[in-house]
Write a structure and sequence with these properties.
Elements (H helix, E strand, L loop, with lengths): L3 H17 L7 E3 L11 H14 L3 E5 L21 E5 L3 H9 L2 H7 L18 H17 L7 E4 L11 H13 L3 E3 L18 E6 L3 H13 L7 H21 L3 E5 L12 H20 L3 E5 L6 E6 L1 H21 L14 E4 L4 E4 L2 E4 L5 H9 L3 H5 L2 E2 H9 L4 H6 L4 H16 L5 E3 L3 E4 L5
Antiparallel strand pairs: 1-3, 2-3, 4-6, 5-6, 7-9, 8-9, 10-11, 11-12, 13-15, 14-15
Helix pairs in contact: 1-4, 8-10, 11-15
């Protein structure tokens, strides 16, 4: 069970994660079950959002989730947005999150190191433009904090902020780029008391006039940084990497920057799947295509309603650049992934299904299903009683029980529903509460994983 601070950390991380895939100008949607895995009571969420809105002033709650979400009365597909908190992120959010990330308790809870302060790069390591820009922006933000009201900001080029090892003219050029974006103004004078012709030559600082739009510019910049493929959460990275590899395959075959990108190999791949599974599949692809468009990999794409493909136009150079970064991230993940020790336990995990509400309970987590779907009926069958829970069900036994038939022809006719129901149910549970091993199944049989009995 999470402590109070851990619940704050978890909530901030989920908000930050959801922000990456939220289109510009739209509120961030946080679902108590889908995003927060039912880790909070209604009162806890209300208190946390009030603290972040009123005390910390880092967000606004534009709309609260419909009351009574814990009993899950809403249809999870038709009424999804009604079950969400609608949030607006304020300019102070990133500074607040950065401060929280410095706390040792946060680092222990997440297993992540905080965003470190810039330091001088050893040796002759080549810095990219993006690395230099990031170094300079961080230095400007820190310098601004030490500036008195209505005074120019002095940006020193020293070891403290890491700017001492960058070329002064290069720093000036990047600052002038920020000036072009109306984030700040580079003062031509470094000594206000002297005329232009008597200014010090190459002093170890710049005088900057920070504009009123700087805070908004910083928010856009930080969101863009967090949206880089190397900074994505593990779950988001897996989705994006999967699509990138598929694009790579089709690019090799088409030999063109324009091609039709299919979400499935053929319609047979989705035969027997519930409509909501197909919708989830389509939406997951569109979400990734939209992200790739934001970061410049895709110039444009078009997707017809109810279709399982999209016409895509790639920026080949940008695609190859992002793909190379993605492969480095993938290799890094594979190298550092730690072995997780298995700790024996005799504690039983509560496992129950309410067929009237279509509500699955696994421990302290719940999943809502369409109670009339085939996969919901499959779950009802498997959890009907102790005998059913321990039984390994063959595909024909499942079909006969759910379709209420003994007719051999009818049973064979419905065989195509079996595997998609097992697969779709497993993926649905995993997407909602992170449990992906509730069922043990193949093309012929299915049963409840013994660890949950």
């Amino acid at each position: 069970m999470m402590s109070g601070k851990e619940k704050l950390y978890f909530l901030l991380n989920r908000i930050d994660d959801a922000r990456i895939i939220t289109p510009s100008g739209q509120p961030i949607l946080i679902h108590p079950t889908g995003n927060l895995s039912n880790n909070y009571t209604v009162v806890e969420l209300s208190q946390l959002f009030t603290k972040l809105e009123k005390d910390e002033k880092v967000l606004k709650v534009l709309k609260e989730a419909a009351s009574g979400y814990m009993v899950l009365n809403l249809d999870p597909y038709r009424d999804f947005e009604d079950g969400c908190y609608h949030l607006e992120i304020l300019p102070n959010f990133d500074d607040y999150l950065l401060k929280i990330q410095q706390e040792p308790e946060y680092q222990e809870f997440t297993g992540k190191n905080p965003a470190s302060s810039p330091t001088k790069i050893s040796g002759n390591a080549l810095m990219t433009y993006e690395e230099k820009l990031n170094l300079i922006v961080k230095a400007v933000v820190e310098a601004k904090k030490a500036t008195r009201k209505d005074q120019s900001t002095t940006l020193y080029l020293n070891a403290t902020n890491g700017l001492d090892h960058l070329d002064r003219e290069e720093i000036r050029n990047i600052l002038l780029q920020l000036q072009d974006e109306n984030a700040l103004k580079v003062n031509p004078k470094t000594n206000r008391l002297l005329p232009i012709e008597q200014q010090p030559i190459n002093p170890n600082y710049f005088l900057l006039d920070i504009t009123d739009t700087f805070a908004d510019w910083c928010v856009r910049y930080q969101v863009k940084q967090k949206g880089k493929i190397e900074n994505l959460s593990e779950a988001n990275f897996k989705e994006v990497y999967f699509v990138l590899t598929q694009l790579e395959d089709q690019l090799q075959l088409s030999q063109s920057d324009k091609f039709n990108f299919g979400f499935v190999t053929s319609v047979h791949d989705i035969q027997g799947y519930d409509s909501e599974d197909v919708d989830d599949l389509t939406n997951s692809y569109i979400k990734v295509l939209e992200y790739l468009k934001k970061i410049g990999v895709i110039k444009d794409y078009s997707h017809g309603a109810m279709s399982l493909d999209a016409d895509v136009t790639l920026d080949i150079t940008r695609y190859l650049e992002v793909m190379e970064t993605a492969k480095k991230v993938k290799r890094s993940q594979e190298q550092i992934e730690p072995a997780i020790p298995v700790i024996p336990t005799n504690d039983k995990i509560q496992l129950a299904y309410n067929p009237n509400k279509g509500l699955l309970t696994v421990g302290n987590k719940t999943v809502k299903l369409n109670k009339d779907s085939f996969r919901a009926k499959l779950l009802e069958l498997l959890l009907k009683d102790d005998k059913s829970r321990k039984k390994e069900w063959s595909w024909d036994e499942v079909i006969e029980a759910i379709e209420n038939t003994k007719d051999e022809a009818t049973t064979k006719e419905n065989k195509g529903k079996f595997y998609p129901a097992c697969d779709g149910l497993t993926k649905h549970i995993a997407s909602k509460i992170g449990i992906n091993d509730l069922l043990t199944f193949n093309k012929s049989t299915v049963q409840i994983n013994s660890k949950y009995l």
